[in-house]
Design goal:
Helices cover 46% and strands 15% of the residues. With 279 residues, the chain is α/β, with parallel strands linked by helices. The protein has a single domain, classed as NAD(P)-binding Rossmann-like Domain (Rossmann fold, 3-Layer(aba) Sandwich). Strands 3-4-2-1-5-7-8-10 form an eight-stranded mixed sheet, with helices on both faces.
């Protein structure tokens, strides 16, 4: 594979799911992949490499994207070790489920602190290194929920809408410095994401409970019957191989249709369709 941007990759959130699949695929292509996880506990901040025939590897380093200090420490560690960061992939995230009325400020902030501010921290600390090198690539993993809001996952959708807006602005800001920015919008995918969903505390005794339970059951069913993250890995590879990557890349034919309908159908009709599916 021709490495347009370089071979040092930092993946925020690579211990499972999409991030892990991306890390494994890129290491097999000869990339030096540094994955991150909050659960890594090593004094050296560096675990044993998993080597491949291509010379690529995966090394896990400790990172909590919700902490400024942790984000900066991880980026500083990688700069000291490799001298640069060529590609950043922001995968860290989780889904908060619950009616808006049932969701506390603290619960909503936790969602945003991971999905949005976490990505912001990583972009903020990585961009200067890429700017010094005169090139780089940032890929933010968004969601089709960042295009179409889903009931009882309003704050998850909101965090992804915010990530979409930040990515679009960041792309224009960094372009003069040779840094490309793109995002991927997956739909329902079979990963550990489903089991890590967090429900607002008040959802257990909510006035919305019957509809909430039905909506979440539909989400779980769609996710568990969805494809593995192969399409997301392929999208990452396409972006990495492109000298002019797109603003966004929707993954999956069904999701591409939904994204298209979002722009051509009246808002009330989109709302009706989503309500029929989830509410």
């Amino acid at each position: 594979m021709n490495k347009l941007y370089g071979d040092v990759v930092l993946i925020a959130g690579a211990s499972s799911g999409m991030g892990k699949a991306i890390a494994e695929a890129l290491s097999q292509e000869g990339y030096k992949v540094y994955g991150t996880s909050r659960k890594v506990k090593t004094e050296s901040n560096d675990e044993v490499a998993v080597c491949t025939d291509t010379g690529g590897f995966i090394k896990m380093i400790q990172l909590d994207v919700c902490s400024d200090e942790s984000a900066k420490a991880a980026v500083d560690f990688l700069k000291e070790k490799e001298g640069r960061i060529d590609i950043l992939v922001n995968c860290a995230g989780f889904a908060l489920a619950g009616a808006v009325e049932d969701t506390t400020h603290e619960e909503a902030f936790r969602e945003f602190n991971t999905n949005f501010f976490g990505a912001h921290r990583m972009c903020r600390y990585t961009a200067p290194i890429m700017r010094e090198n005169g090139k780089g690539l940032i890929i933010n993993i968004s969601s089709t929920a960042g295009l179409i809001s889903v009931p009882f996952q309003s704050f998850y959708s909101a965090s992804k809408y915010a990530l979409e807006a930040m990515t679009e602005g960041l792309r224009m800001e960094l372009k003069p410095y040779g840094i490309k920015v793109s995002m991927i919008e997956p739909g329902d995918t079979k990963t550990g994401f489903t089991n890590s969903r967090v429900c607002a505390e008040a959802s257990r005794d909510s006035v919305y409970k019957a509809t909430f339970d039905k909506s979440i059951a539909r989400m779980v069913k769609d996710e568990q019957s969805g494809p593995p993250p192969v399409g997301i890995v392929q999208a990452v590879k396409r972006i990495i191989n492109s000298s002019n990557p797109p603003v966004r890349q929707v993954v999956g034919p069904v999701n591409k249709v939904l994204a298209f309908l979002k722009w051509i159908l009246p808002d009330r009709l989109v709302e009706y369709i989503v309500s029929k599916l989830y509410a």
